[in-house]
Amino acid sequence: MEVHEVNLTISAVAPKQYPDGGLPEIALAGRSNVGKSSLINTLINRKAYARTSSQPGKTQTLNFYNVEQQVYFVDVPGYGFAKVSKKAREAFGQMIETYLSTRKPLRGVILLVDARHDPSEDDISMYDWLTYYDIPLLVVATKSDKIAKGKWNQSESRIRKGLGMQASAPFIQFSAETKQGKAVVWQWIEQQAAL
Ligand code: GDP
Predict the structure, then answer these.
(1) Please, where are the H alpha helices in the chain?
(2) Minimum CA distance residue for ligand 1 atom 10
(3) Which cofactor does it need (predicted)?
(4) What is the pLDDT of residues 114-149, one digit of tens each?
(5) Where do the domains of the chain lie?
(6) What would the pLDDT profile of 4-55 be if each residue is shown by its tens digit?
(7) Dihedral angle computed from the Cα positions of residues 42, 125, 107 and 186, in that order, rounded to the nearest 10 degrees
(8) By Cβ atoms counted within 10 A, which residue in 88, 128, 142, 157 is the most buried?
(9) Interatomic CA distance for residues 134 and 145, integer angstroms
(10) 166, 131 contact by CB (below 8 A)
(11) Residue 97 and residue 74: Cα distance in Å, rounded?
């Protein structure tokens, strides 16, 4: 999709604030600093629209970006905040779980993992959880420019194995620096959202 118009419709803390109007939604999830804002900005052709590096301790919200009046990108707050209290972490987990498990317009989730590392415990939990709820899932390995192209297969195998992905489960190497993978991520979104 050629994107010209994007609006942050709402930073929601509760389900009653989620937008209605029936547009399909694609959620993006991953641990903090994985490159989620950079992926969103690449997809919508902006330099710094989605905020970068969510700050630990800040109020955690689900950010709904209306893209071309056709689809919402739902920015799920980064998980793995060491600095947030246990209580805050639980409430935050509950908000995400409720959204992901009950939200009707949700058509798919993009799970971001770092191309350079083995998936973390949190990545694995998130993957298992999304698989359990049968939510269409695309795994995107971020910051691929930081590893040599010759090592991409190795990185993919490690991530697939770490997450326990089936061979047919979709996986894409991505870089916000080189835009590698942008078209394929868009293709997946368009397919899931039936655009
Ligand atoms: P978020 O916390 O998941 O939203 O992560 P950000 O998008 O803010 O990215 C975290 C850091 O990683 C920033 O310093 C980015 O510049 C850097 N980063 C994100 N994506 C890429 C990428 O594809 N390649 C490289 N080299 N750095 C990236």
Answers:
(1) 36-43, 86-102, 121-132, 152-163, 182-192
(2) 33
(3) Mg(2+)
(4) 999 999 988 998 899 899 988 999 999 999 999 999
(5) 6-192
(6) 999 999 999 889 999 998 999 999 999 989 999 999 999 999 987 777 545 5
(7) 20
(8) 142
(9) 31
(10) no
(11) 14
Provide the token pair at 13. Answer: 């803390």
| Chain centre distance of CA 42 | 13
Count how many Cα atoms sit within 13 Å of the Cα of residue 157 in the half-sphere of its side chain. 5
- Residue identifier of the C-alpha nearest atom 17 of ligand 1: 35
Helix (H, G, I), strand (E, B) or coil at 72: strand
pLDDT at residue 89, as a whole number:
67
Residue 179 identity (one-letter amino acid): K
Copy the structure tokens of residue 83.
């600095």
Question: What is the CATH architecture of 6-192?
Answer: 3-Layer(aba) Sandwich (3.40)
Global pTM reads: 0.93
Mapped onto helix, strand or coil, the DSSP state of residue 141 is strand
Contact (CB, 8 A) for 174 and 39: yes
Q: How many CA atoms lie within 13 A of 76 on its CB side?
A: 26
pLDDT in tens, 83-117: 556 776 676 678 888 899 999 999 999 999 999 99
Cα–Cα distance measured from residue 110 to residue 185, given in angstroms and rounded to the nearest whole number: 9
Spatial distance between the Cα atoms of 147 and 116, rounded to a whole number of angstroms: 7
Q: Is the CB of 53 under 6 A from ligand 1?
A: yes
